[in-house]
Specification:
With 808 residues, the chain is of the alpha+beta class. The chain folds into 4 domains: 186 residues, no CATH class; 222 residues, no CATH class; 155 residues, no CATH class; 180 residues, no CATH class. A hairpin with a 3-residue loop joins strand 9 and strand 10.
Amino acid sequence: MIVNYFKTAFRNLTRNKSYTLINIAGLASGIAVCIIIFLIIQFQTSFDDFHKKKDRTYRVLTEYLHADSPDIFYGHGVPYPMPKGLKTEFPEIEEIAPIYADQNNQILIADDNGTVVKKFKENTGVFFTEPSFFKIFDFPLLAGSYESLKDPNNVLLTKATAERYFGDWKIATGKTIKLKSYSTDVLKVSGILAEAPANSDFQLKLAVAYGTGFTQNYITKSTDWDGTSGSFGCYILLPPNISAANFNTQLRAYSKKVKSPQNKDSHIIQSLSAVHYDTQAGDYSNKTISHELINVLWLIAAFILLIACVNFINLSTAQAVNRAKEVGVRKVLGSNRWQLKTQFLIETFLIIFISVILSIAITILALPYVSKLLELQVSFNLFTNGSLLLFLMSTIIVVTALAGFYPSIVLSRFNPITALKSKLSAKSAKGISLRRGLVVFQFIVAQALIIGTLIIVKQMNYFVNQPLGFDKNAIVNVPFPSDSLGLSKLGYLKKQLLSVGGIQRVSFSSNTPVEDDNDMWTNFRYDHAVKETDFYAISKFADNEYIPAYKLPLVAGRNLQPSDTAREFLVNESVVKSLGLKNPEEILNKEIGMWGDQMKGPVVGVIKDFNDRSFRRDLAPMLITSNNRLYNQAGIKLSGTNMPDIMHSIEKTWSSVFPDFVFDYQFLDAKINSFYKQESQLSELYKIFAVIAILLSCLGLYGLASFMAVQRIKEVGVRKVLGATASNIVYLFSKEFIILISIAFVIATPIAWYFMNKWLQDYVFRIDMNWWLFVAGGAASVLVALATVSFQAIKAAVANPVKSLRTE
């Protein structure tokens, strides 16, 4: 019996090839999208799951409470004394691991004679930490000892890093490398780590002993509980009997005790399981993804699969008229409704099974592109990924039930007498109103995706084209060694660079005018006040060329005078407002003291506010002063012509001044664009999903229009004989679908507005959702649908009416 069901199903599918191909193409596309999204979400939700003590691992966050804002902001940076303070105040904590994530490190490999033979640049992946880090986190060791990190100037390398440095990781232990950052440190390789999994927020390359170099000279000696750095964090391992809520109460109380009275900030702990989804606080990998975004991806997958199922239901119920006699004969010969339902469900199962096989092929072909687009190491392996196999099996069952249940009911309930007398017509078949509703549903989803994608693209264009308040064009930033030797060469370097044709200005600074997660925040003492300010300001350190190089406009006062130390200050308008002053001139010549008055001097100028961070964040108070000990990069303003030759000259000059330093650079506009990398990647993905959604919807329309053309062939012939033109016939076929799509647009518009307005709230600076974006989205779907339906309509309209009216 079962074999007969499958034989009959196969024969029926091969008999109706066009119907079968449309259904398979639609379902395969929808299922492929679901598989790809499933793999993306599976990867994103697996971050750091491999750590055995994950449920007891927490990181310490800073809870920023600004006096001029009711909102609470969170950051993963903590004060430098935090690890030592926790050890003293909370002895019950099992493990405490300080982490300093250093950036833009130069690695030198020397031979036995001390001659540098290899140079490497490590922008990320260099972590200063203690052995306790590896008691909290599970990063396997291939050679050496974690305990070696108790002693300064030891380093653990990952296997791949050791192979890059020495060729063979097995000979790396015992070798030395030079690490050039704030100082030049000779490090002994004391062990080799296995590679960090791709689904970890700790992409380790080097684990340097805490207490080496900058961490020893400054961080471990710091007593500043008010300042924080985004590069410095702290992780702890709580005992099983202590809850996070109770510990947070104690930690907040401790924060009040150690911070200055005017500092209202606090600290809390956050579970490791929540770190990867905290887009506000961020992490060291810059790959966080919000739960809301994951839910959006699930919704897109579900809706695209539903659109494919709707196509199947519409075409199956439309085909019901053609199969009426078959059903009548089966019923006369003794088939009951359950047997007929089984027959049609098996047909559905065959279509879906073939679609799943095809969708797997589509996924295998598309996944490398998606992985490259999103910069994720997502792979497809059906036999080792049990969750994926279960997902596919569930998809087959759910889609078979979803797409096949209703058509099987429609087909099995035909009256055999009516069917055999050929009195069943398209209009007498049940489900016409349902088909209309399903078409509307398809285009609600498709149009919402199109409108949403248009808004995302417009916001992305806003990111790129909106003026920031300073010059970002043709400026290249090049890091240099900030040790004493490197700083001593800056004067000569500047002179050599300015002699290169096409270079207009050269400025040395701690960072560029705009940073997204690399700012140093501080409060300060204003005009000899007893207490420091109750708000924080971004502190930047730069020479007197900084203002003209980036074209930062002054609204009062003058620029900084040339100096190697902090003698004068520039502030922005936000500082003036935060201090309660009415105009910029009032702050001129008033003294500012920061870092416990280690740096102090008068305010000599006020800068017009500019976007100092990404558009997600509001303008912040800012201080700028000189201090060459904190400079680590050059900002070079180019003429904007013949860039390749200029960059070649810069590299040649740089290599001559710093022969042991890897030349590395980044254009400022490219850096700013990188702030929105995730949005840019997802916008490309949404474009693809929107195209798939509209194509799937139109695929269903094409099938329905084809069926209508067959069912109404005699009607078209009669109309043409009575004088109807081709345009009349096209209108006849198109009007119903256009009405349905217009209804879908009316429903999709408020839905799209609600969700996109919610998405735009994440950005302080954002576009207005103009009406034309919605009209453009609706018009695009109407035009595509009209073209789809018109193809069949024109085909019917130009057919010979004599053939149309000829009897069978």
